[in-house]
Design brief:
CATH topology: Immunoglobulin-like
Shape: elongated
Largest sheet: 5 strands, antiparallel
Radius of gyration: 21 Å
Distance between the termini: 33 Å
Structural class: mainly beta
Number of strands: 7
Order of helices and strands: EEEEEEE
CATH architecture: Sandwich
Helix content: under 10%
Amino acid sequence: MSAHGTLHGTITDTGGENADERGFVWGTTSRGDPGNTAHDATAYDSNWVEGGSFGVDTFDHIVTGLDEGDTYYVRACAHNSAGWSYGGEVEFETPVAGWTGKISGVTNPAKIMGVDVANISKVKGVASA
């Protein structure tokens, strides 16, 4: 199964000239600031940009096909005649299918998801003590 997410970016300053491209770069490895490097030449695994004329504003992009349970690192980016600029790197973790939220009020952790203490050694290779 695959996961999806919505990326959010903001152009906070154009330097006096609207951006002609804006988008995101992302991957499963944290990277340093790409500097004045085109989105498709960064060390990130994936990228997406759209063209147009963009002033100070927010923008979003839905990403599909992400691996469940992985940590992803993302940066927003924008371009004008001065070059490329990237926002700070943000990380997020994709959920695993079937997970519906936080666990609270657990009094016997061995009984989570119906796992009985007597069967704990049969769960994903976890050996009982």
